[in-house]
Amino acid sequence: MGKKVASLDVDPLSLPLGMRMGPWRIVGWGGRGAYGTVYRVERVGHELEGPFALKLAVFPEDERFEREAWLLRHIQSASVPHLYAQGVWEHASGRYRYLVMQWVEGEPLYEWSARRNPTESRVVELLLQVAKAVEATHAVGAVHRDVKGGNVLVRLTDGRAFLMDFGAGHYRGAATLTSKVLPPGTPAYRSPEAWGFLRLFLRHPTAHYPASASDDLFALGITAYRLVTDEYPPSTDPQAPGAEVWREGGPGPRPPRELNPRVSPELDALILRLLAPAPVDRFNGRAQELVAALEEMKERAGPERNEPLFGWSHAHDTRWRSLGGVRLAEERDAARREREKRELEVRARAEAANRLAEPPRSVAVWSVEGGIAAMGLLLTCLLVTGLYRGQQEAQTASAKEHRQRDTAAVGDGAGAISASADASVPAGNAKSAVGLPLPEKLFPGQRKPPCNRFGEVEVRGGCWWLLGAGKPPCKEKGKEDGYEWKGACYTPSYQMGREPTSKPP
To answer: What is the DSSP secondary-structure string of 134-184?
Structure first.
């Protein structure tokens, strides 16, 4: 009973910094969606590999995560995050699936545009990258089903667009996980044919709309329309005002050029083709045709497409940008690029130093006589070992029982690894530190200001990790190295590669 109460102290919806889930340590917050919470994590013992994104299910036993893992493993695209691992976190309230993916430090597409004044050439490049991600998705017999600006991140260091969140995706042969007529998705991006299917089969007990490649292309058209006009076209919901433009044989939405004259006729025609009311008119439902059209547009770009797509104004109005705000965003982007460059240089030097520090591997050369002698020695050792086998087996069974008390099953056969809320650096002698007040002096090897690691705080001239929502007494499960200070629990932050100690200085 005590174990369940202790594990419930950690809220699955808000895990504390420093907590470990298998080999992954939480070092930051990424965001929360309808089905998952994203954390910034690092791999314990391999911190120089850089940050990763851990997406933890909001609901236990969520089968969407298994399907999302399948999609990320099979889709090959530079604009789709790479999947590194998957697993299950055991909690008293259930088993929560998680995925570990490539960390993308970026902004959602519309927010990125609102803080900048992109040129049409830049917009075409972003749409091309997203279209290639959609093409790669369709190539494996899958559909994303939730393409939208909020699921496109623009990486701030190099401006690459990433198509994110495949939790609503589907692939050929996958089981149907919902009982509703329409699949998961965002209403503003649904195609006219999806709404038409809903009207016909609203009360059908087993009907499910089969989302197709044309649905993803239509959603990308909505995204492009919103990107160049700062507005959505009329809703495709038949009950909404203005939806009559989407009826069969209807005119479709107003051309983007009528809202923003800076949009070229070529881009205007491409977006309207994506938003054609008839699915067959959307590049024949083939993302590769869209990619080819965007690549041709990119190659034929003239100097007029390098002009800002929006006007300049001090007010934050539709289709206007603030010159001061754009300059601030550009300065921040440049600072991020410089910081990442320095971090990559530090990692490269550290990896080179680690390689030099590795001892050379020795090659043993065996002779026939040496082999016979070694065999005899081995037999002797086996006979002696048998005398103590009973005692060793008892010790092993006890240790095994202790290890299995709190585990996180990691996918791909990685075995069971502790998933308790460990401190950021494992301690050498935790028992001697339990419940002690924060010491006046620093520990040997403890980091000193500036405390610029993510989640570090400066206290009494040293760098410390705040143990999430940890409150005294700092000796409960997951707070073994906690030191009490001003009503919270802290653990020291050490230099990388230094063996820590939890003995008071």
So the answer is: HHHHHHTTEE-S--SGGGEEEETTT--EEE---TT-EETTPPP---SSSPS
Q: In 3D, which of 142, 134, 153, 131 has the Cα closest to residue 270?
A: 131
Position 135 pLDDT exceeds 90:
yes
For 122, the 3-state DSSP assignment is helix
Q: Cα(498)–Cα(492) distance, rounded to whole angstroms? A: 12
* Among candidate residues 488, 469, 419, the one with its CA nearest the CA of residue 14: 469
Distance from the first to the final alpha carbon of the chain? 37
Token code pair at residue 100: 């570990």
Under a CB-based contact definition with an 8 Å cutoff, are residues 199 and 219 in contact?
no
Q: What is the pTM of this model?
A: 0.69
Rounded Cα distance between 245 and 230, Å, is 20
pLDDT tens digits, one per residue of 14-52: 899 999 999 999 999 998 888 899 999 999 999 888 899
Domains recognised in the chain with CATH numbers: 2-102 (3.30.200.20), 106-321 (1.10.510.10), 422-505 (no CATH)
Residue 193 has pLDDT above 50, yes or no: yes
> Is there a contact between 6 and 476 (Cβ–Cβ < 8 Å)?
yes
What's the rounded Cα separation, in Å, for the pair 168 and 147?
Answer: 10
Residue type at position 481: D
Which pLDDT score is estimated for 230?
97
| Predicted confidence (pLDDT) per residue in 326-378, tens digit | 999 999 988 888 888 888 788 788 777 777 776 655 444 444 444 444 555 45
Phi, psi at 233, each rounded to 5°: -70, 175
Do residues 85 and 93 touch, judged by C-beta distance below 8 A? Answer: no
Cα torsion 249, 254, 258, 262: sign: negative
Using an 8 Å Cβ cutoff, are 181 and 253 in contact? no
| Rounded Cα–Cα distance for residues 89 and 290 (Å) | 41
Q: How far apart are CA 262 and CA 300, in angstroms?
A: 17
pLDDT at 452: 66
Q: Residue holding tokens 């907590």?
A: 19
Using an 8 Å Cβ cutoff, are 251 and 180 in contact? Answer: no
Looking at per-residue confidence, does 69 or 451 come out higher?
69
Q: How far apart are CA 22 and CA 120, in angstroms?
A: 45
Q: How far apart are CA 128 and CA 130, in angstroms?
A: 5
Cβ atoms within 10 Å of 28's Cβ, excluding its own: 16
